[in-house]
Amino acid sequence: MANHKSAKKRIKVNAKKNKVNTARKSAIKTFIKKALTAITGGNKEQATTDMRVAESKIMKGAGKVMPKKRASRKVSRMTKKLNKMEAK
Question: Is 61 within 8 Å of 28 (Cβ atoms)?
Fold first, then answer.
């Protein structure tokens, strides 16, 4: 256990940030799943709107809860799937 005042504060701050980051990651995963199910479902309008929202959430979380390159890769792969669906 921490003995210094600053160390005790750091423990509190880390716990708070952990909750926030966990919630952000969870929300991003939910939006990704929602977009992917809409893409596989075949509904173009729904897939497009879900993809737009998911892309926004992913890029906002880039650098905070996930590396920027991973965020870009996820968006790119989802966009590819969306474009393949629209081509059919």
Answer: yes
